[in-house]
Design a protein that fits this description.
Radius of gyration: 19 Å
Number of helices: 11
Structural class: mainly alpha
Helix content: over 70%
Order of helices and strands: HHHHHHHHHHH
Number of strands: 0
Largest sheet: none
Length: 233
Amino acid sequence: MLYTAFIFGLISSFHCIGMCGPIAMMLPVDRDNQAKKVTQIMTYHFGRLMAYASIGLFFGLLGKGLFLAGMQQKMSIFIGIAMIVVILIPEKVFARYNFSKPVFVLISKIKSTLGKQFKNKSYKSLFTIGLLNGFLPCGMVYVALFGAIAMQSESFGVLYMLLFGLGTVPMMSTVVYLHSFLTVPVRNKIQKIIPYVAVAMGVLFILRGLGLGIPYVSPSDMSLFVQATPNCH
């Protein structure tokens, strides 16, 4: 299921253009030295990837706890359904509720610190911008975290989120160079693909939990359950 992380990252990056694109376009990079500009942009992405990895570690540990409790099959089905529900419910419904209210102060501090970093062109500032950017609320990251939980391992949770982040790198790098070509109509057309991809991922997780014996897609029940006694043939 790891490959779904990179694919979802690629598709989600078009959503990221709208949400985080302005941050990428405002990066304090050297506009005259192209070689340095590339390393600066990669430093920014490295910061984002570290943020995703740390979040993946936390949710991977959560998934591992569920795995050890023998709940991995039901959890995979639940996560798949949750992915589909989150995508299908209109954003205006979520807008009625302030889910970020409990951490509003923390988010405000992140945004404030983020703004200050744009005044400095050092690599440390670019890394910090990427790191803080990665911790900002994002619906696509939330969906990816469902996948990290389903990995049932802290290491695979980290890897899942790293692959998701890597999937966003190409487009988020392109926006720095070619932002004038990525017009609103173009972004809107591409964003229409995102729900279909997320729903497809949700279906894959549901199939994985059902244990239908389909190689690579829905492994048998025996490989999904933790058993006290080994079941050997």
